[in-house]
Design goal:
Layout lengths: L15 E11 L2 E8 L6 E5 L4 E7 L2 E2 L3 H9 L4 E8 L4 E8 L3 E9 L7 E9 L2 H15 L25 E7 L16 H19 L2 E5 L9 H10 L4 E8 L10 E5 L6 H10 L2 H4 L5 H11 L5 H20 L10 E4 L11 E8 L3 H7 L2 H20 L15
Parallel strand pairs: 1-5, 10-11, 10-12, 12-15, 13-14
Antiparallel strand pairs: 1-2, 2-9, 3-4, 4-7, 6-7, 8-9, 13-15
Helix pairs in contact: 3-10, 8-10
Length: 406
Amino acid sequence: MLLGLSGTAVLAGPPDVLGVRAGRQIEDVTRFVLDISHKVDYRIFTLPDPYRVVIDFPDMDWKIHKDALDRLVRDNPTIKGFRFGQFGQAGGRIVMEVAEPVSVKNSFMLNPVGPHPYRFVLDLAKTDHASFLRESEASKQVAAKPDPVIAKVPPPPTTVPQARKDTRKIIVIDPGHGGVDPGAISLNGYHEKNLTLAMSQELARQLNATGRYKAVLTRNEDDFMALRERVTFARAAGADLFISIHADSHGEGETRGASVYTLSTDASDKEAAALATKENKADVIAGLDLSRQDRDVASILIDLAQRETMNRSKIYAGTLVDELERANVALLAHRPHRSAGFAVLTAPDVPAVLLEVGYLSNKTDERNLMQQAHRQKLARAIIKAADSFFAQPRPVVARVPGGASN
């Protein structure tokens, strides 16, 4: 059974997740259990490459100690990875990456008994690859039905927009990651998704205060947003510039400094290619199918209509690197401006950069990024770069009709 539903009582607030555990029930069957304060609706589907089990719930308040989540993965060979968080405007999502193909054998809610609260139970039975693919396709068709849990994104412009009465430049700021996708985790356990949101909100505040710019955020809360939806959002907003904010991590703790990335058909170096691959997996982390997105990115990268936009993006990136250096912001030691095939930068008519504000795996960068004063300094440098960028003459390029994933 791939779709489970249960009656839901009217709640004063979101249900609490009070416990999580998993273990082998019988041979080749793993039982996953969530302790929840109230009965909830749910929806289950599976995705391949890698094998994933995805569970959509209403928004819930996770009151689980990190040790319990660590044990879930460490002590259960079937479960390789476990992520949860906000997905869309009114729902939550769990994504379990499993080590082998599995079938959803049972899913149900148990009523409270004695000291035990409501329990969501999911039984996963070992299966073969071909069976997993058949079940995954069937469950995706169920999951594709209209659902208010999924975030609603404004449709892209279908015609060249009329001249705006508001003369302010529109800068769309994209806080990287969010919701079920935490991004990198710092040395002291801070999530990249929270840092990028704080940085983006500070940048938006300063941009709006100038009176020259109108800042629009792709997300203003801890929500998940698919990569192609971020591109579509920027185009629908009529963005003059798109800035995606991230914070990197590295296996070597000494690596530190800010860096700026732009879109290119060929990566500038192996490190940029590796970063693009990692960032482009955000949708996989959230349990989305990447097959269409991969085709979209490939088609956009060879679209001649984007060449001028890519050149403009490089101009802003170079200016931003200069302003960060003037502001005494530490830069990545080698080539702070790099390029690769970042899916989030593929709008054909919006100059776009991805800014890595530092490395959460480095003690100094982590400490700086946690400080409001440092985020304010970064924002001032970004705005100075925007001032220089928009002061330069530019050719007139009409917007390309349609969204970035047509």
